[in-house]
Structures are given as C-alpha cells and as structure tokens.
Amino acid sequence: MGKDNKRTCAAIQNMARVFPLLFILAMFILHLALPDKTFSKEERRYLAQWPVSHIEKVLNGSYEAKVESYFSDQFPFRNFWVHIQEESNQNLFKR
After folding, report:
1. Alpha-carbon span 75 to 34, nearest angstrom
2. Segment 58-72, tens digit of pLDDT
3. Which residues, including other chains, have CB under 8 Å from residue 27's CB and lie 6 or more apart?
4. For residues 39 and 45, is the Cβ–Cβ distance under 8 A?
5. 64 in Cβ contact with 38 (< 8 Å)
6. pLDDT tens digits for range 32-49
7. pTM flag (> 0.90)
8. Which of 13, 42, 47, 87 would staple 73 via disulfide (CB 3.0–4.6 Å)?
9. What is the DSSP letter of 34?
C-alpha cells in the first residue's frame, strides 16, 4: 500500500509541475490562432494592434511599450480574465 501512495503522490507532483507549462503553451497557441480584435464593447475602447517598427522607436523604448500593450489587449479570452480579476478585487476589498 505504501508504494501506491508514493506513486500517486509522485503523479500529482508531476501534474502540478506540468500544468502551468501546458497552460502557457495553450495560451500561446490560442494567441496565434485567434484573430486580433479591434474594439472592446465592454471597455468601450479600441484595442492595441501590432505596432509598426522603426529604429527610432526601438531605440527610445516606445516600441516595446506598444508591443506590451498589444499583448495585453490581445490576450486570449481577455474579457473572461478581466471579469475574474474584477470579481476577486470586489470580494477582497469587501472585507
């Protein structure tokens, strides 16, 4: 019986190690597969699109900021994650 418990514990530990990697890989694949959105009805604003690169923008750092904004706006299932964050913030600050 002790060996079965050790095997089960090892299997759970391996899944706990692999799950975050699989989640990141799935989000990456979804990001590549899903089309970019241009407008968010929930936020009533236009979402960032992939920036055009110029050497001046790369050197002064504004290009990297625009790329970061793009990835933030085009994250797969972004509205779901924003809703989760808003709900958790409301529940956290109710106390």
Report:
1. 10
2. 889 899 999 999 999
3. 75, 76
4. yes
5. no
6. 999 999 998 888 999 999
7. no
8. 47
9. S
